[in-house]
Amino acid sequence: MAGFVDKLKPVEPSGSAIIARERAQSDISVDGLSQTLFAGDNYLHRQARILPILTAEPLFDKKQQANLSRPDLFKLALARAKLLRRLKDQHGWDIDDYKLAELLVDDVSPYYLHLHMFVTTIREQASDEQQAHFMPLINAFKIIGAYAQTELGHGSNWNGTLGRTANYAIVVAQLLLPRPGVNAEDEPEYVSQGPHLFVVQVRDLKTHQPLEGVVVGDIGPKYGYATIDNAYMLFDNFRIPHSALLSRYAKVDPETGIYSKPAIPAVVYGTMTYVRSLIVHQSRMGLARAVTIAVRYTSIRRQFKDRDSKDGAERAVLDYPTVQVRVLPLLAATYALHYTGLAMQRIYKDARKEIEGGNFSPLASMHSMSSGLKSFCTNLVADGIETCRRALGGHGYGGASGFTRLYPDYLSRVTVEGDNWMITQQVASYLIKRMGEAAAQSTGADPSHLEIFNALNGRSHLQPCDILKSDVQVVEAFRRRASFLKPWTSLIIQLNKVSHAQSVAMVVEFFHESLSSHEHLSTTTQTALQNLYRLFAYYQMETEGNDFVRSHAISQDQLNALSGRIQELMTLIRPHAVKLVDSWMIPDYLLDSALGRYDGQLYEDLFHRAHRLNPLNKITFNPNYWEDEIVKGSGEGWSSILAKL
Amino acid sequence: MAGFVDKLKPVEPSGSAIIARERAQSDISVDGLSQTLFAGDNYLHRQARILPILTAEPLFDKKQQANLSRPDLFKLALARAKLLRRLKDQHGWDIDDYKLAELLVDDVSPYYLHLHMFVTTIREQASDEQQAHFMPLINAFKIIGAYAQTELGHGSNWNGTLGRTANYAIVVAQLLLPRPGVNAEDEPEYVSQGPHLFVVQVRDLKTHQPLEGVVVGDIGPKYGYATIDNAYMLFDNFRIPHSALLSRYAKVDPETGIYSKPAIPAVVYGTMTYVRSLIVHQSRMGLARAVTIAVRYTSIRRQFKDRDSKDGAERAVLDYPTVQVRVLPLLAATYALHYTGLAMQRIYKDARKEIEGGNFSPLASMHSMSSGLKSFCTNLVADGIETCRRALGGHGYGGASGFTRLYPDYLSRVTVEGDNWMITQQVASYLIKRMGEAAAQSTGADPSHLEIFNALNGRSHLQPCDILKSDVQVVEAFRRRASFLKPWTSLIIQLNKVSHAQSVAMVVEFFHESLSSHEHLSTTTQTALQNLYRLFAYYQMETEGNDFVRSHAISQDQLNALSGRIQELMTLIRPHAVKLVDSWMIPDYLLDSALGRYDGQLYEDLFHRAHRLNPLNKITFNPNYWEDEIVKGSGEGWSSILAKL
């Protein structure tokens, strides 16, 4: 092609120059902030250690993967998964190293379920003897396990890792036992003990063919998640041994057939609580990727001249309030989600300790909290990613945006592990039950973040919270709105709102708590975080303003004032926006985005990807409809493409 | 595989039985309603005539397309486009037949821009001589044209059909002319006359190679739109003849160099108004596909037992208010969008007639109206499609949902032809300008749906509209909210709200107007349409309740009552839901959805697609990480997949 192309330069000021100016205008210390965010975790060191190992491997190169078919993407993902597992051996990575490497490569790995739901279920639900047998096999990947809970026509119906990869699965199934006392010679009558967990071999370890009586396969292309094999599975007269029943809590005596049930039946669903907490913890990263790209791109991208400017220069897109209002509240949300994720993990670990010690009482509140937050956080992130993508205009639709895999993959989260609408009804019923208990005792319950209940009546004389002057009153306003349950519970449709209100109140409270842990940071940084806190809370409040006013959490005047306050906060945050996303320390390799590059060379990269990397540009097509030929000069008609249908 | 698989039957009642019952319980006449909806258009006959021609062609089979790589999808799309064009010759299709066939095949065709923006621009902007030259070439596809308006760093930057297919393009570029009066021997000084339209050959008609001085290519994989070649293009000292300037309105005398400008400069953007009106008109179909799938699936799908039911049967998911509130307002929206699209097309045609007669005055209001409605309707549809998808739970994420191409393709609409946020500012400035004029004249403007202005002050004594009793008062409430501009215009961030309020007021009014055209339909049908109207309006109102109260359009009590009214309406609409989606007459071939099949055989189809059609299930993989082999028994390592990176 024409030689002038290689000499092209973007107009001045270049993206690199602009983003350098952006960084120079803020005195936030990115190192200081990111070390605070990731304190207590080796995340930053880990990432610095692992990243160069990954980028040195051609197999992890992402440049062409959007041009691959789904079958090829799956083959690639399996090859990558194998290589990652080898690197673990080679470099002595621990499990967190390995999971971070997986995250950076950004395939949902064919091994994913093995290292999450399968191993967690064995660890939490298997007896000591079962663990002694399975854990070494799991750790050495001598067996690969999946988790099969749903049935066609119920649940979400897709069991990852099981379609083509796994040879074992946790199977959740009804435990049927002969009715005791029936004469052994009679046809036994079976009684269901409810759903139990079984660990079941489903494929031959040598041939990798399904065992006799098992039909299993991949469900085909999906909205995203091309790299993982979600499965259907059928059993036909398939026998499993007594030892398949995971028997840490539920047991059947092999001699007498006597069944001992778990202390509480819900304990078998512990793995779902684990996964929901994990999803809450991970939600920050999905949104942080989107916001990093959006902030960097919109701070470089110029559009329309500033009438007040003398030089007639165009304004950065991020200087427009219409762009700020879409991107900056989401920047604030990344911080809110981060602290929520940390709190969720802490609470989960504490609860597990209790449960392992035989105290099952935290189960119900954990289940409610993880369900509510899973629903709230994943909705926020899924919608937030798309809001960021749209804020990039046409470029957000292009493959160089970094969104074309991020968004479809993330969308799985709103339905997986309990559909976001459905599970909020569980939260609401938990809250209503607790409220009933509290009312019965004629006493207010413990006002911790897990149990927020106010008096049910006589709210109309309440003074609105002083949200514009006091940060902690903001927390109170969210609590008050969340406790405004009574007029809602008559309508099932509103249960979603109850759960949402409860969850966002927690998120606000966790974010507020974190503010006191920043005292060692510079005043600028502390102020920026405080402004992010207010922006997050005010923005949520304004979005659902009417509910806050109706619940006497805030006054109509305060609600009317929010829009102006939000705009002021955005103006204060704007100069620090680039450094506030830099602090998430997301490497270019993970972003895989021309628009979100750290160095700002976006137009160079956009053109490079289109002009030099796109395989379609190596083909000359024949556009004449009266000629069969598709590829010019091939002389071939469309039979080869027809053969692929 | 095991023989029992072929004998599987879904549990009773089957999907077919359920959907038959759904249809039997409503006495709406689907034929009567659909003929009313598509009256004045041969749409239904056209579809009945064309569909069997398409489904008889193996090239139009959709079963495997989700398994193809992007380069293969493009080849397939070009082959399909050629075949469609041949079928046009063969069957004597007119242009509407051809476009309907394109829509049913559901590829965004590589020829798409040729038949839309290219031909429209020639028709509207070329002189009679230019048309005489180009129109026969265009109609015979002897040349293939595209439309190139944006520049890197400005606009949306992607020009369809140009990447690999087109040999011509409309190029929007600055017209520079020598400053008159400068001595011909001096170096001429150029003066820009602003952007003008040129028709430019960019590829050789024989070799299909770019002409010397042109660099052009496809931008690579995108979020959706895999089947069309969006382009980058560079010119380097590329000369075009005088005849390239489209000169219906703007002319340069080839002898004297004297420039005659168009009566109004905005006339060159007519094609954008055309495309925006087209997008408004087409928006109904995108949403109707999603709602058809969602209503059919959720009426069949069962989940959880009904406590009040004696037989312990599970309830249809669509019987839950939490599902209804997501799906049924969108069902109502399909009707609202349909009537809006019809009105928009009617107004566009009338305006074109005026413009062709030399009266350019409708241009500004057309531009504003088409921009505002494009933004409102495409946001509603894009978000509505995703809401429907999520209402399907895990199955909505699967490839058999019918959403995996629909949603990514539709998302292009929110940024293409003017980013939805950006263009609303044009609407708002138009409204503010008209408001200023109205105020200056000290007189209210014409209160037609294009120009809704009320007095600016003294609203606080207004009586709220009686929205719960009167349908036309609902229209008035939307108008009043839309005219509540003054406190907003100081804040640029609110301009989006102004435009949105104005557009939704129009949509409500168009829908309300249509109610009077249904008098020949049965009472049940008329009542159902009236309920859909109310549901659409009340739902929109409740979503932005605070603005309606603040603008004294409705009272707080009325707002509080809406949630109950919405639920009542949904209960009334529920029994007719299947027939109300049936009336859009969308064939299974277009839906391409196991979940949305007309006959209700969803589980049979889901399993068939997964078990029999998925090519991944023909491959046995080797899951052992210590072995290089990916495909079991191939003995091959990952070198072949690595070679594709």
Structure description:
- The structure is a homodimer of 645-residue chains.
- The first copy, chain A, is mainly α.
- Chain A has 22 helices and nine strands.
- Chain A has helices at 15-24, 30-37, 43-55, 70-91, 95-105, 112-125, 128-139, 270-300, 321-356, 362-391, 406-411, 420-440, 471-482, 486-489, 495-515, 523-543, 545-550, 556-573, 577-582, 588-591, 602-613, 639-642; strands at 145-148, 168-178, 190-201, 214-218, 231-235, 251-252, 259-260, 302-305, 314-316.
- In chain A, strands 1-2-3 form a three-stranded mixed sheet, with helices on one face. A two-stranded antiparallel ribbon of chain A has the order 4-5. Chain A has a two-stranded antiparallel sheet with strand order 6-7.
- In chain A, helix 10 packs across helix 12.
- The radius of gyration of chain A is 28 Å and the shape is globular.
- Chains A and B meet through helix 4, strand 4, helix 9, helix 10 and helix 11 of A and helix 4, strand 4, helix 9, helix 10 and helix 11 of B.
